Amino acid sequence: MSSEVETSAEYIHHHLQNLTYGHLPDGTWGVAHTAEQAKAMGFWALNLDTLIMSFLLGAIFLLMFRSVAKKAVAGTPNGLQNFCEWAVEFIDTSVRGSFSSKNNMVAPLALTIFFWVFTMNLMDLLPIDYIPSLMTWAGVPFFKVVPSTDPNATFGMAIGVFILVLYYSVKMKGFGGFVGELTLQPFGKWGMPVNFLLEGVNLIAKPISLALRLFGNMYAGEMIFILIALMGGAWAGFTMGGVTLYGSQILLSLGWAIFHILIVTLQAFIFMTLTVVYLDMAHQEHH
Amino acid sequence: MNINATLLAQTIMFALFVWFCMKFVWTPIIAALEARKKQIADGLADAERAKHDLELASKRSVEILREAKEKAGEIVVNGEKRASEIVEEAKTQAKGEGDRIVAGAKAEIDQEVFRAKEQLRTQVSAIALAGAGKILGREIDAKAHNEMLDKLVAEI
Whose CA is closest to A264, among A177, A148, A130? Predict the structure, then answer.
């Protein structure tokens, strides 16, 4: 953090601020140094930390699997191939379980979602001060390490899924069929406006719930890590309270991190499964 | 925490990742898995076939063994029969030979007896002549009494 003593509020704000690149108020392009500057940039700005981290994680995951896929043989697999094959089979079984139509795109999509979200969430387990401190030291004002605590990342994926849902709904049922599905049920053609309202909400709720569920869980988890970290931040010499708080921070961080492993995996799995289920619904005539 | 163009960038990145995963990760790994599945299935089928073959072979070997035993028994029986035949033949041959030898010996003995009788007869006639001569006190003319002598010899 900065060299001056910061308040708890500043500490929290610092941790929750993305590294935003955009149009600065003075007319130049650059990185926002305060939350207000970032806000003022409006829509046409990029969160560099989210982009860099998510790209790195996705690339690492894909290159690891690619290295296996390149020399994948039917013979006896070695360690990394074992892991990748296990992952692929796990996703394949899970997709087969909840996706009844035939589409070669869904299983790789599920694999990508699961591992990408999983690795992005996993960044939450890194000690929360290390990378931001390192970045501050290197002259970068903010750096949020966990891309899935940025709604841009989660909504980005959810919109991608939503586009696929719309695409396959229209492709499988025809445009008329899709519109009919939106307007002719559950109350028949006389209840068309009500039907459209209900089904429209139903449809829109899919990407929003996907994105917000992941974002909310990871954001809250991150928040709790920050709050726990604040306890030790109250350190002011070897007083009774200081030592107790410091010890509590270590214990609580450990406990929350262990619990968070579950959340990290679970959220990745939920995002993947729901995507598959939504796509399955898009493929089916009636649901 | 602002919604901004990162959203679009993330969506594009997501699409590219999915495309890459589908094209270069999923397909080859699934292909390898399928190939291994097939290999294993083939291997199991081969093992099954081999087991079946083994079963057949062991059945066949038992049959062959039984046949061989039967044949061996037949051969032994034949051999025994042949042996007894040979012995029988040898016996008859030996008996014939013996009979012939016995017959030859008998003939020889007969001949010998005949010869001895002949000799004895001649000697007896000679003794008889000598005795008669002594009794009569004179020489018996062998020529004159030849006829009588011959008669005598024939009588003895």
Answer: A148
What are the structural domain ranges in chain A?
Answer: 8-283
The DSSP result for chain B, as a single string, is: ----THHHHHHHHHHHHHHHIIIIIIHHHHHHHHHHHHHHHHHHHHHHHHHHHHHHHHHHHHHHHHHHHHHHHHHHHHHHHHHHHHHHHHHHHHHHHHHHHHHHHHHHHHHHHHHHHHHHHHHHHHHHHHHHHHHHTS---TTTTHHHHHHHHHH-
For residue A265, is pLDDT > 90?
yes
**Could you give the CA distance from residue A271 to residue A161 in angstroms, rounded to a whole number?**
10
B4–A44 C-beta distance less than 8 A: yes
Out of A54, A148, A217, A253, the active site residue is A217
Look at chain B and report how many structural domains it folds into: 1
CA dist A151 and A110 (Å) reads 20
Least confident of A54-63, A106-115, A179-188: A179-188
Q: What is the mean pLDDT of chain B?
A: 89
Q: Whose structure tokens read 């089904």?
A: A199
Residue B52 sits in which domain range? 46-155
Sheet containing A20-23: give its strands across: A29-31, A20-23, A46-47
CB neighbours of A202 closer than 8 A, spacing ≥ 6? none
Residues of A in Cβ contact (< 8 Å) with B11: 156-157, 159-160, 163
Residue B103 to residue B116: CA distance in whole angstroms: 19
Q: Cβ neighbours of residue B57 under 8 Å, at least 6 residues apart?
A: none
The answer to whether position B108 is within a domain reads yes
Q: What is residue B156's predicted lDDT score, i.e. its pLDDT?
A: 67
Beta carbons within 8 Å of A31's beta carbon, 6+ residues apart: A19, A20, A21, A48, A140, A141
Q: Is-contact A32 A38, C-beta < 8 A? A: yes
As a whole number of angstroms, the distance between CA A255 and CA A268 comes to: 20
Q: What is the C-alpha separation between A47 and A142, in angstroms, rounded?
A: 10
How much is the CA Rg of chain B, to the nearest whole Å? 61
Q: Given A46, A50, A74, which is nearest B32 (Cβ)?
A: A74
Enumerate residues 9 to 48 of chain B having a beta carbon within 8 A of any beta carbon in chain A. Answer: 9-11, 13-15, 17-18, 20-22, 24-33, 35-36, 38-39
Q: Which two tokens stand for residue A285?
A: 């005539």
ipTM: 0.86
Within a domain: B32: no
Residues linked to residue A29 through DSSP beta bridges, in sequence order: A23
Residue A194 in this model has a pLDDT that exceeds 80: yes
In a domain, B119, yes or no: yes
Domain for residue B7, yes or no? no
